[in-house]
Amino acid sequence: MKFKRATQVAEEMKRAITDIIANEVRDPRMGFITVTGVELADDLRYGKVFISIFEDEARQQQCLDGLNSAKGFIRRELGRRLGLRFTPEFDFRIDKSIAEGDKIDRLLHQIETGKDPHEPA
Q1: pLDDT tens digits, 26-53
Q2: Is residue 117 in some structural domain?
């Protein structure tokens, strides 16, 4: 069972990380990145930050490398903004759910219009 506190802190982290990435991280490897979610352990020490990157695979890896190199800066800014006793350590993970949802949507649309779903669009 998730504690309410962990859920609240995760939501605040999501907002703060989104703002930090958009306005303060200056890395040329960064592309259009969306923070889709944050999962925190119940003790608020460790977490996973799920991101969506609207680029090809190679560019996604570059963005992920840029985020990982800026992780210390992001964590420090997060600690300053949230004022927690311990700033959670976290890992960035690529959230593929949006891409998978888009793929399913395109397949359903192709089926609806009568096209072969295995045929290129």
Answers
A1: 888 887 889 999 999 989 999 999 999 8
A2: no
Greatest Cα pair distance, the chain, in angstroms, is: 58
Burial level of 4, CB count in 10 A (0-12/13-18/19+)? exposed
d(CA 64, CA 61): 5
- Domain of residue 64, CATH code: 3.30.300.20
The answer on pLDDT for 12 being more than 90 is: yes
* Cβ pair 71, 27 in contact under 8 A: no
**Residue 67 belongs to a domain:** yes
Cβ within 8 Å of residue 17, ≥6 positions away? 35, 38, 49, 74, 78
* Domain housing 45: 4-96
How many separate domains does the chain show?
1
Residue 3, pLDDT > 70, answer no
